[in-house]
Write a structure and sequence with these properties.
Oligomer: heterodimer
Number of strands of chain A: 7
Number of strands of chain B: 0
Strand order of the largest sheet of chain A: 5-4-3-6-7
Radius of gyration of chain A: 23 Å
Helix content of chain B: over 70%
Largest sheet of chain A: 5 strands, mixed
Distance between the termini of chain B: 57 Å
Distance between the termini of chain A: 50 Å
Number of helices of chain A: 10
Largest interface: A-B, 50 and 60 residues
Helix content of chain A: 25-40%
Shape of chain B: globular
Shape of chain A: globular
Structural class of chain B: mainly alpha
């Protein structure tokens, strides 16, 4: 019955089977102005190097776990003094966090975060130009503070719609020493500046560099897209579409007042 | 072969499938612009493209479509188009078996967006489970579980659909019959 149901559903496909592709010319013209991306190859030597590089880290992790187990195990002579084992506290230095670094050829940041991992924010040392200023900023210089990176564009309706929520996030973060960092996406500095003035945004906004590589490092293919980075420079949460007040409140409360 | 030539080959191989994928999810007036956006986004990430490019392209297309929907709130238009298409298929007359297609269309439209997307990937986009799981970036096993539940909910929704001929909101059906 179920396969029959799928077969019947297939017949309701609103698109004809023979829908031709669009002409390639206009699309190739659009990409002609975008630099060719570097192909990341996966040869055997590279894979082996990557695997071998994990060996010392795994050995160190195993040693730490063994030491913890030995210390925490009660002596046989005094079982009544054994306290109930406590669940491991999640810290930024726990093995699960250390293992969760994204790789260029691995799953996307969003996938890692959805799997409960906390990959390092990419491109942390990249100098990003502040909007309408000669100054630069980088994620590494914001280390120690919770940072909400909000990729946006002045031409994007959901980005405008979520401004109130971003400002609320900025207030919540500022109260705890954190900040919002706006990053423009495929936008002109003039448009971004008009957006900043129109909505009276006080938090730092950086302009995307010409190649858009910072956004690419975060796997951005559209805006708005928001990442929350903890004080250790690891991504705690991602929201790949318009923010809601409820999501921001719940997420920031957990990060700012939780165990991080 | 340079990257642009390789990209053009990929476009020629999958351009039609991606266009169909997008047309199934957004109103046709915007769909072709979005198809171009999908391939621009794909070009930016082309360095990371896997061997099986189609699920990867569909994954990018999902993101582009999701952005578009957030901006324009076209879900209702999509639903309307789906129902119209379902109705049109009845009127134009192919024999599609024992299930009344209008009831099936209504049952499908009443599902959650997540369930609809699972079913679309399999029934309309023609992906196997491994590919569909790749599009959604979830393990294949999890996809199978979710698909099973979505099918069950569709079946239940179908059972709950009334059997009357008239489709609400589509008086033209009555007129044509």
């Amino acid at each position: 019955m179920n396969d029959e149901l799928i077969r019947q559903l297939a017949l309701l496909d609103p698109v004809p089977d023979d829908l031709p592709p669009l002409p390639a010319g206009p699309i190739m013209q659009r990409i002609a102005v975008i630099p060719a991306p570097a192909r990341r190859t996966r040869n055997l030597a590279g894979v082996l190097r990557g695997r071998l590089a994990l060996v010392p880290a795994l050995a160190a992790t195993a040693a730490v776990i063994l030491a913890v187990v030995l210390v925490a195990t009660p002596s046989h002579g005094s079982p009544q003094t054994a306290s109930r084992p406590q669940p491991a506290k999640r810290t930024a230095t726990s093995p699960s966090h250390r293992a969760a670094t994204s790789t260029p050829t691995g799953p996307s940041l969003e996938t890692l975060i959805n799997r409960g991992m906390h990959p390092k924010a990419p491109d942390a040392n990249r100098s990003l130009h502040l909007l309408n200023s000669r100054k630069t900023i980088s994620l590494s210089r914001l280390r120690g503070r919770v940072v909400m990176i909000n990729f946006f564009a002045s031409w994007c309706p959901p980005c405008k719609a979520e401004v109130g929520v971003v400002r609320k996030a900025e207030r919540m973060l500022a109260a705890q020493g954190g900040t919002v960092l706006g990053v423009t996406y495929e936008d002109s500095p003039r448009g971004a500046l008009a957006f900043k003035k129109r909505y009276k945004l006080d938090y730092p906004i950086v302009t995307e560099e010409p190649t858009g590589s910072f956004a690419r490092a975060f796997d951005i293919s559209g805006v708005p897209d928001t990442f929350i980075i903890n004080s250790n420079g690891r991504i705690e949460a991602v929201r790949p579409y318009q923010l809601t007040s409820r999501w921001i409140t719940r997420t920031l409360r957990t990060i700012l007042h939780g165990s991080y | 072969m340079d990257e642009r030539a390789r990209f053009e080959l990929m476009y020629r191989a999958h351009g039609s499938a991606v266009r169909s994928f997008v047309h199934r999810r957004v109103a046709s007036g915007d769909a072709d612009d979005l198809v171009a956006d999908v391939f621009v986004a794909a070009w930016r990430r082309f360095g990371q493209s896997p061997a099986d490019e189609l699920p990867w392209l569909f994954g990018i297309a999902r993101g582009v479509v999701a952005n578009h929907r957030r901006g324009n709130q076209r879900r209702s238009a999509l639903r309307e188009r789906l129902q119209q298409t379902a109705v049109a298929s009845v009127v134009s007359g192919p024999d599609i078996g024992s299930i009344d297609p209008r009831r099936l269309a209504r049952a499908f439209a009443g599902l959650s967006e997540r369930d609809r997307e699972l079913l679309r990937l399999v029934a309309w986009d023609g992906l196997d489970r491994a590919q569909a799981a790749q599009v959604l970036q979830i393990p294949e096993r999890l996809f199978s579980v979710r698909l099973h539940r979505a099918r069950r909910r569709l079946s239940r929704a179908l059972d709950e659909q009334p059997t009357e001929d008239r489709v609400e909101g589509f008086p033209q059906v009555e007129a044509k019959r």
